[in-house]
Every structure is written in structure tokens, then in C-alpha cells.
């Protein structure tokens, strides 16, 4: 018996009946989502603490505020986003009406990961709801406590005929993916991204894949090591390193390394104290499996800062590794933990070659006082997003699309990009009746004279509409 | 780089071609990595060369289209080549603006930073063409891919053999040979091409093969644009200018002998106007193609015997109001109209892609909408009416790639409108700036200075909660 059959049929029927189309309905759902966050903040905070030992500050900044911000943005702009977009016309269509109509796809599936279990499920949900779809949410089973709140409490705030939360591991996800959806939004690893896309291909379902990679962090000789260390450390150790856009490794000269390592030590001490284990601001690793994986990586290169670990509460100290070889495991997989390897390069060119030899990452960072150096790194590489002289600030702007490229993903979202991602952009041309004499030059029997007139009419050079 | 199709015999020969395919793609990648596609000047130069190619080889192109699809010089130009020239013109004009960084709105925290979207090429793009508009549907996407700074591997359809061979000859004569190779061949070669890694694949063709392309792309996490098909409905309201409607419908249906992905596939109308619709369609057909369409230089032929048999087979058991005859030797099928068509019959089960117009009777707008919604989302939808309420309702309660109201096909000729499908009719879109966006990566950029560190200290741990505990 397929456990999802009934749920999916119910949601499809609601969509067909047109329930999700009116702006009022979508506004009600978005407001419901907002109330869910506000009324259950304590409950959610406790769940995040149990799953990831996520502190109040980090939860506020990276889970609650971001989600609430997106809800508010959607509520403010929904009517504008839903409007038909006027399109420029050519001479042949001057008297017509040309526009792009934004339509919901239908039934959307959102699969979320465990590292920001609230943000990474709610922010896409905002877009899918705003665009008028029915939605099936599949939170990660690994962030168990948050998942429990989502499945037990969230549905009370949304119209359950148009919306469902399903729990389960890889097996349930596989079963779910056999069904047809009209859009699939997946956040997770490239390996599973391939599985999702292959499943989507069977139904010709379009996808957005938010994946990952190793995000390089180039540190130029021309910079202030302490400022750089503050910024790199903050973004590296946030959420105990379990962030898809965290700086994954540093590329710098041996000379810069000598100045950077003590600066990193200084930043870590200032942020987390002499014994980071006692800091309420440092998270823990999500599971034993990931803990063991990370513990293994501590053996790569040489520990310059940190290196301690304790399996009893899945603690890994904020760590910096040096003398790391490209072939070692810590440079082969996305780290996703509080470990920062430093790889030496002798020049900017060498750094850029190093980066370009590898898969395109989700984010890329360059630190330098020189604007030219920052621009060089940007121009000569590719990545989902880029930040010069800071960590993943770029994703705090809803006006910037958030997504990957190549192995780090396809498609993007945040703000209006979410709405557009979950909408079909339907090209519409409304012709005025009449003027048939002019339009009839396109009909057979074809003649050279007619062709010339037609070509002139199709020419867009003289169109100054909009 | 000319890769001929593998001959039927000789395993070594086939293997040789297969190795060549991976070499060609690798060479394209190396050429891309050299960075020469980045400068705006280079891209414009290549587009200008493409334009020169089309103008200088006009006759060769028309001859190939004539051999493949019985097009004549005029309709080859008007129904196909002109769209490509238009696109090139439009792109060359606007590209300098498109390649610029787009500044975006800032937040309170980023007021002093630079925030913008930077467009970059994806790398090596694969374009798989098709046979019904073999020139346009291969080259028009290519224009966008070149504009976005990519290397482009073309795989024209082997079904439109003459055009495929011509492209393999003339493209290397005008464009950069390493960056823009043409690979020809049938299923084995296409399968081998799909094993290679690309940074985007644009495929035009059937939903069945679309799934195969997307599955192959998934192995490399390659994004795809799939321009597929379906049955594009044409609703003719009682309240419309029937003469006008039928002329326009006939024009869109019978061009290229019905082999157009956005052709009106079938008509939905009230039984009370069915006879009039038939009469007026017949009148238009006569106006366009004369008494005997077979003799008209403007009327096309079916691409090959397989499709000829397939389309003729759809006539079985149907009520023929006009046409219904064919000649296998020349692959000619007369402009045909069927009446009182049963929705369960074969002609209503697959995309017709031939000069047969079934009329299915519906008694109301609601019934028409229901009929349409019970089926896969089509590439195009048409509605003829003078009643705004009817038009609004039809659009609001259905979905399709695109819509033209009171005409057919033309929404795809407007550059500012995206051309693409939805659901079974496809994903993604192109034309004009939509092509540029499809073939680019839009990279979010935030650049700040290393100074002003004090302004950022507030975000660092230890957090407030720890400080209040002390």
C-alpha cells in the first residue's frame, strides 16, 4: 500500500478545484506560517537545541529572522509579484497585448536537509505558497526534534487540504519520488541531487537543486590578518561548520599563513572562550555518523588550532589544519564541520588554477585590500555566489538569487526569485481582431513583395515601447 | 569539425566515431577554458559571422530545406530563416546591456557594499536540434548560447539529413571550429554525445526522448531546457469572427504540412458552428494552396515514410470533411479536416504533427476547459473569441507553455516573451533575453571592504546571553 497515494490525490484535487489561486488564500497561508513561528518560538528553539545545540543567537539570526523576513517580504509584495508582466512588442504586434502570466505549477515537493531545518524548509515553502501551489514538505529525519514539530504543529496553521508534511528516511523519500510532482525543490548533497533529478526525469518534472561543494576562501597577502581571521572564523564555525556556504578551506601563501593562524586562534578564543566546549554559542555535530566522519578528518595535515573532540556529546573543537595535501580526505569532500584546512599557494594565479581544477562551488570568497585582486578572483572563477571580504553575507539579501552552478546546483531562490522559481511563466499574446488586411501578407501564396513588407514589420529596431 | 554519421557496417569505424565524439567535446571544453569566448567583442563577431553565413549561403539553406521538407525558397525564408536573422539582430543590439552587472537592492547592513548579479557563461552547451524546422530550431538556441559566452556543440537531427549535412559543412567555415563543432549521427551517436558532460543541454523534440535526455543529464547534474510538444488545443467560440479565425487557424495548421510544435492541433467548438468552421477552413485552404494543394509550391511534404504512414493511419474510421488523401511516393497528405471526432480515437491520443485538423464538439466553455485540463499541459493554447470574459476564463483556468488569442503561433515571434513548455510540453524557455539568461549563470555578488571592522563586531560571539550570565 502506498502511504502517500491518498495525501497526494487530496492535494491534487484541491489544486484542480482552484483553492490556492486567489491572493487572499495565499495571504492567509503566509500569515499562518508567520503565526506558527511566533507562537511556537520556544518549542522550536528547544528542538533546534536538541538537534544541533543551536544557541539562541544563531537560531534567531539564521532560522527565525530569515524565515520571518521572507514571509513579510512575500506578504508585502504578493500582489505585485502576481501581476501579469507586460512584455515589449515589435511593430507587427504594436496593437496587441503581450504579457507573461505567472501561474502555479500545481503540486510541489520540498525536500529539506538537517543543518538549518527550519530556514531551509520554510523559506522555499514561502515561495511555493506565494506562487499558489499545493505543497508536500519532507523535512530531514536526521534533525528529529525539529521534524517532529513540523509534522505535529505546522499543519494546524495551514490549510490541510492543500498542504502536507511527511516524515521519513531515504526509503520513504524514494517512495515519494516515484510519484509525479509538478516541481521538486531539493536541498542536500550532490549525490542525492542526482537521484532526485533522475526520479524527476521520469515525469518531466522541473527541479531546483541546492547542493554543495568545497567553498574556497582565498586570502591575499595584502590584507589585515586579524580582520580576515574574524570574518573567516565567524562564518566557518557558525552552526559548528554545518553550513553549505561556509568557507570550506583557505588558500594563501606560507607567509600569510604564519600571520593568519595566530589570528584565527585569537578570534576563536574571543568568540568561544579558552575552552570552546563551554561556550553556548558553539553547536554540536548532528549525528554520530557525521561526528565520526569529522573526527577522521582531524588526522589530516597537522593541527594548528583546536583538534579536540568528544563523542559523548559530538563535540568538535574549532580547528585549523595546516600542511594539508590536496589528496587528503579533508580536501576531497565537503567538510561540513568546524575544521578549516589551509592550503598554500604561491600566487593568485596558482590559487585560481587550484579552484578551477575542481567542481564549481556554492560559494567563493576572496579577501584582499586590493579591489583588483578581488575582481580577478571573481572574473576568473565560477561559483553559485561570491563575497569579497566577508563570508556568506550575500545570502542575507533577498534581492540576490541564492543557488549553485555545476555540481553545486541548479536554479535559485529567496525573495522574488522564490516566487518566480515556483511559477510557470506563461507567454501570452492577445491579438486585436481586425487589421486583417495588414496581417494577410503572411499568407500563401508567398510573394517577394509581401516578404519584404513582413520583414520590415517584424524588425524590432523601431519599437520604443516601455 | 565535421563528424559524419557512422556507416552501417564496421565496428571499428563506429568506435572511431565514438572516440572522436568525446575528443570533440573535450576540445570544445579546452577552447572554452582558454577564455576567448568571454570578451563581448568575440561573441558579437561570432554572431556577425553567423549572420554572414545565413546571408551568403541562403540558397544552400533553402535547397536543404526543400530537399528535407519540400519547402520553397520563399517559405524557407519566411517561416524559418527570418526568425534566426531577427534573433541575431536583436541579440547583437542588446547584448552590450545584458552582459553588464545588475546592481540590486541593498539591506540596512549592506548599504556601503557593492551588491550585484554578475552573468557568466556556463561552459559547454549541447543543443540537440529537431527536423521540422531543422535550421531555426538548431541555430536560434545557438545564438543565445553564443551570446552568453559559451562553447556550443550542435547535434542536428539526422532525420532532416540535408540540413544536418549542410550545417556540418558551413558552420566550421564561418565560426570558431573548436568552440562550435557539429556532430552528426543517429541514435548511437546521440547516446554517446549524451554520455559526455555538458554545462547545459537544450533539447527540442518529443516528451519520450526528453525523459531520456534529462535522465542522462542527471548523471552530471547538468541543467536542461526541454522544448517538447503535445496537443495544442484551439477553442473557437460562437462569438467570434469565424472567417478571420478560420483563415488564421488554417495558416498555422497547414504550414510545413502541419509539422509545427505550436500548430493548433485540434479544434474545440460548439456543434452548431462546426459546419461553418469546416466551410471557412476549406475556403482558406483553397485561397492559400489552390484547388489541388499538391500542385502548390507553398505546401510542404511529410518528412519521411514512417511519419507519413503514422499520420495517414490516424484517418482510420474518421469522418473526413475535406482532404483525407495522400500519396506515399511524394509523402504528400492533403489538407484534411475531420468532424465529430471521438476524443478516445487515435487522432486525439498523440500529437498529430501533420495536416489533419480534428474538430471535437463541446457544448460550453466549461466543457472545453474541462476537456483541456483532463489532458497533459500543451505547448500552446489558442482561443478565438470577441468576448473578454471567455478569453479571461480560458486563460485563467488552463495552463500551457504559451497562449495566442485570436490568432495562432505568433506568441513565439515576440522576443520579449519566453518560448517554452510546462509539464509534459517541457521546462525552461528561450528566445531573446530569455536565451541569454537560460545559457548564463547569474552569480550573486557582494563586495565589501576590509575596513570598518568595528561595524561588524556585533555579530560575533560571545552572544548576549553569555554576557548577561556574567
Characterize the overall form of chain A: globular
Unreliably modeled segments of chain A? 460-466
| Text of the CATH class of the largest domain in chain B | Alpha Beta
Could you give the distance between the termini of chain B? 73 Å
CATH superfamily of the largest domain in chain B: Aldehyde Dehydrogenase, Chain A, domain 1
Largest interface: A-B, 107 and 104 residues
Mean pLDDT of chain B: 94
Could you tell me the number of beta strands of chain A?
18
Work out the strand percent of chain A: 15-25%
- CATH topology category name of the largest domain in chain A: Aldehyde Dehydrogenase, Chain A, domain 1
Shape of chain B: globular
Number of domains of chain B: 2
Spatially, the strands of the biggest sheet of chain B line up as 11-14-15-10-9-16-17
- Enumerate the strands of the largest sheet of chain A in spatial order, edge to edge or round the barrel: 10-13-14-9-8-15-16
Tell me about the biggest sheet of chain B?
A: 7 strands, mixed
Structural class of chain B: alpha/beta
CATH architecture of the largest domain in chain B: 3-Layer(aba) Sandwich
Count of distinct structural domains of chain A? 2
From the 3D coordinates, which CATH architecture of the largest domain in chain A would you assign?
Answer: 3-Layer(aba) Sandwich
Family (chain B): Belongs to the aldehyde dehydrogenase family.
GO molecular function (chain B): 3-chloroallyl aldehyde dehydrogenase activity; aldehyde dehydrogenase (NAD+) activity
Active site (chain B): 227, 261
Subunit structure (chain B): Homodimer.
Amino acid at each position: 500500500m502506498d502511504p502517500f497515494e491518498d495525501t497526494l490525490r487530496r492535494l491534487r484535487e484541491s489544486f484542480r478545484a482552484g483553492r490556492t489561486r486567489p491572493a487572499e488564500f495565499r495571504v492567509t497561508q503566509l500569515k499562518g506560517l508567520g503565526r506558527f513561528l511566533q507562537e511556537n518560538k520556544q518549542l522550536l528553539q528547544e528542538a533546534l537545541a536538541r538537534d544541533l545545540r543551536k544557541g539562541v543567537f544563531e537560531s534567531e539570526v539564521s532560522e527565525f529572522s530569515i524565515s520571518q523576513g521572507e514571509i513579510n517580504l512575500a506578504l508585502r509584495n504578493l500582489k505585485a509579484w502576481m501581476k501579469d508582466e507586460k512584455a515589449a512588442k515589435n511593430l507587427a504586434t504594436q496593437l496587441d497585448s503581450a504579457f507573461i502570466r505567472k501561474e502555479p505549477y500545481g503540486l510541489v515537493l520540498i525536500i529539506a536537509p538537517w543543518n538549518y531545518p527550519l530556514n531551509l524548509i520554510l523559506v522555499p515553502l514561502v515561495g511555493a505558497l506565494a506562487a499558489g501551489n499545493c505543497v508536500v514538505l519532507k523535512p530531514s529525519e536526521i534533525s528529529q526534534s525539529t521534524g517532529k514539530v513540523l509534522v505535529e504543529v505546522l499543519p494546524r496553521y495551514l490549510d490541510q487540504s492543500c498542504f502536507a508534511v511527511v516524515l521519513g528516511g531515504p526509503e520513504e523519500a524514494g517512495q515519494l519520488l516515484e510519484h509525479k510532482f509538478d516541481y521538486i525543490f531539493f536541498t542536500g548533497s550532490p549525490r542525492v541531487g542526482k537521484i532526485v533529478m533522475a526520479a524527476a526525469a521520469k515525469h518531466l518534472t522541473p527541479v531546483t537543486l541546492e547542493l554543495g561543494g568545497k567553498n574556497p576562501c582565498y586570502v591575499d597577502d595584502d590584507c589585515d590578518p586579524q580582520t580576515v581571521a574574524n570574518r573567516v572564523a565567524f562564518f566557518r564555525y557558525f552552526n559548528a561548520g554545518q553550513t553549505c556556504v561556509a568557507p570550506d578551506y583557505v588558500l594563501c601563501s606560507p607567509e600569510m599563513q604564519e600571520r593568519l593562524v595566530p589570528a584565527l586562534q585569537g578570534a576563536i578564543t574571543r568568540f568561544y572562550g579558552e575552552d570552546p566546549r563551554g561556550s553556548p554559542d558553539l553547536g554540536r555535530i548532528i549525528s554520530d555518523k557525521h561526528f565520526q566522519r569529522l573526527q577522521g578528518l582531524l588526522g589530516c595535515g597537522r593541527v594548528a588550532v583546536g583538534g579536540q573532540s568528544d563523542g559523548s556529546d559530538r563535540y568538535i573543537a574549532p580547528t585549523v589544519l595546516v600542511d594539508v595535501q590536496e589528496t587528503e580526505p579533508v580536501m576531497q569532500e565537503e567538510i561540513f564541520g568546524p575544521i578549516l584546512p589551509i592550503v598554500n599557494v604561491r600566487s593568485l594565479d596558482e590559487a585560481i588554477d587550484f579552484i578551477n581544477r575542481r567542481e564549481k562551488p556554492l560559494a567563493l570568497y576572496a579577501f584582499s585590500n586590493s579591489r583588483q585582486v578581488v575582481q580577478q578572483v571573481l572574473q576568473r572563477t565560477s561559483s553559485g555566489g561570491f563575497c569579497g571580504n566577508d563570508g556568506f553575507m550575500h545570502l542575507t539579501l533577498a534581492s540576490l538569487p541564492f543557488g549553485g552552478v555545476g555540481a553545486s546546483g541548479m536554479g535559485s531562490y529567496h525573495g522574488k526569485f522564490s516566487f518566480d522559481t515556483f511559477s510557470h511563466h506563461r507567454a501570452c499574446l492577445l491579438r486585436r481582431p481586425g487589421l486583417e488586411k495588414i496581417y494577410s501578407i503572411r499568407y500563401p501564396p508567398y510573394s517577394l513583395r509581401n516578404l519584404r513588407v513582413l520583414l520590415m514589420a517584424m524588425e524590432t529596431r523601431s519599437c520604443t515601447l516601455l | 569539425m565535421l563528424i559524419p554519421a557512422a556507416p552501417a557496417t564496421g565496428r571499428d569505424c563506429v568506435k572511431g566515431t565514438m572516440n572522436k565524439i568525446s575528443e570533440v567535446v573535450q576540445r570544445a571544453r579546452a577552447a572554452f577554458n582558454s577564455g576567448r569566448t568571454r570578451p563581448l567583442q568575440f561573441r558579437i563577431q561570432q554572431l556577425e559571422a553567423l549572420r554572414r553565413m545565413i546571408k551568403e549561403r541562403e540558397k544552400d539553406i533553402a535547397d536543404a530545406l526543400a530537399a528535407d521538407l519540400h519547402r520553397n525558397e520563399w517559405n524557407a525564408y519566411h517561416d524559418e530563416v527570418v526568425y534566426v536573422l531577427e534573433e541575431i539582430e536583436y541579440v547583437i543590439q542588446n547584448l552590450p546591456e545584458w552582459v553588464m552587472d545588475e546592481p540590486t537592492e541593498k539591506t540596512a547592513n549592506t548599504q556601503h557594499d557593492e551588491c550585484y548579479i554578475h552573468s557568466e557563461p556556463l561552459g559547454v552547451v549541447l543543443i540537440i536540434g529537431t527536423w521540422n524546422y531543422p535550421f531555426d530550431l538548431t541555430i536560434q538556441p545557438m545564438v543565445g548560447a553564443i551570446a552568453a559566452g559559451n562553447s556550443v556543440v550542435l547535434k542536428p537531427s539526422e532525420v532532416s539529413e540535408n540540413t544536418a549535412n549542410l550545417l556540418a559543412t558551413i558552420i566550421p567555415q564561418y565560426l570558431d571550429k573548436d568552440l562550435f563543432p557539429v556532430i552528426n549521427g543517429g541514435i548511437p551517436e546521440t547516446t554517446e554525445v549524451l554520455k559526455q558532460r555538458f554545462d547545459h543541454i537544450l533539447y527540442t523534440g518529443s516528451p519520450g526522448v526528453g525523459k531520456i535526455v534529462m535522465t542522462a543529464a542527471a548523471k552530471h547534474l547538468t541543467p536542461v531546457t526541454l522544448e517538447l510538444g503535445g496537443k495544442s488545443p484551439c477553442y473557437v467560440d460562437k462569438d467570434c469572427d469565424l472567417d478571420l479565425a478560420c483563415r488564421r487557424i488554417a495558416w498555422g495548421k497547414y504550414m510545413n504540412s502541419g509539422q509545427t510544435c505550436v500548430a493548433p492541433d485540434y479544434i474545440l467548438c460548439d456543434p452548431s458552428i462546426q459546419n461553418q468552421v469546416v466551410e471557412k477552413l476549406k475556403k482558406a485552404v483553397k485561397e492559400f494552396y489552390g484547388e489541388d494543394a499538391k500542385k502548390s509550391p507553398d505546401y510542404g511534404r511529410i518528412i519521411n515514410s514512417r511519419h507519413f504512414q503514422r499520420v495517414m493511419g490516424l484517418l482510420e474510421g474518421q469522418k473526413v470533411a475535406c482532404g483525407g488523401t495522400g500519396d506515399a511516393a511524394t509523402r504528400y497528405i492533403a489538407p484534411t479536416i475531420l468532424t465529430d471526432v471521438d476524443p478516445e480515437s487515435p487522432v486525439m491520443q498523440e500529437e498529430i504533427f501533420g495536416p489533419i485538423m480534428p474538430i471535437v464538439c463541446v457544448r460550453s466553455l466549461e466543457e472545453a476547459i474541462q476537456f483541456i485540463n483532463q489532458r497533459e499541459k500543451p505547448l500552446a493554447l489558442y482561443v478565438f473569441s470577441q468576448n473578454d470574459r471567455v478569453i479571461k476564463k480560458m486563460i485563467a483556468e488552463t495552463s500551457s507553455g504559451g497562449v495566442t488569442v485570436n490568432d495562432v503561433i505568433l506568441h513565439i515571434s515576440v522576443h520579449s516573451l519566453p518560448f517554452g513548455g510546462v509539464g509534459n510540453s517541457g521546462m525552461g524557455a528561450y528566445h531573446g533575453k530569455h536565451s541569454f539568461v537560460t545559457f548564463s549563470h547569474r552569480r550573486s555578488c557582494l563586495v565589501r571592504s576590509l575596513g570598518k571592522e568595528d561595524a561588524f563586531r556585533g555579530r560575533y560571539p560571545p552572544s548576549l546571553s553569555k554576557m548577561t550570565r556574567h
